[in-house]
Amino acid sequence: MRKKVCFVVLLCVIFAQSVSEAQVFGTTPQGETPQSPSSAPSAYFFGQGQGILIDVNLWGQVRSPGKYYVPYNTDLVSLLSIAGGPAPTAKLDDIRIVRYARVDSAVVEKVVRVDIDKFIETGEQNFPALLRGDTVIVPGGPISVLNTIITVTNAIFGIVNAIFLIVILNRELARN
Question: Which residues of 141-174 are buried (b: 16+ CB within 10 A; e: fewer)?
Fold first, then answer.
């Protein structure tokens, strides 16, 4: 009997912990892929009415990070808009586009930094074009770091709380 009660309490604490993490980060439900035509091994995809699609990875402080298949002429602002826009904790003056370029016979990693804050202030769009396989990283500002610390601390206290609750329940059930 005690083991069943302890198991149910542990499940409740784990469930409550996962719900509170989702609220802190504002995440979307798992398994939601914004646009994925198929798992074909081809390097390029042909969309229905969209022409040639390229795959671009979008990571970091955006509403819906993931792998996107977008028309080859999609710019950075459009990609961020497709992903639901940047999160309120995003650091928009240091967005990085990581891409691999072939120089002679070697493959070289190149990082391009983009300042979206400047675009917001002036409307000037001098971003590099997105290429197939690019990874766009939207870093977080100080608030996102604080958010991460709070989430980790919350998880640790949740586990400690569950352990204390199980110990107390064991003692109470042993008395009866």
Answer: beebeebeeeeeeeeeebeeebeeebeeeeeeee
Question: pTM, whole model, 2 decimals?
Answer: 0.60
Q: Taking the CB of residue 96, how many other CB atoms lie within 10 A of it?
A: 15
Residue 50: per-residue pLDDT: 67
In angstroms, the CA 26 to CA 29 distance is 10
pLDDT value at residue 17: 60
Please provide the distance, in angstroms rounded to a whole number, between the alpha carbons at the two ends of the chain: 12
**b/e burial code for range 52-77 (CB count within 10 A of at least 16 → b):** ebbbbebebbbebbbebbbeeebebe
Mean pLDDT of 97-104: 86
pLDDT of residue 18: 57
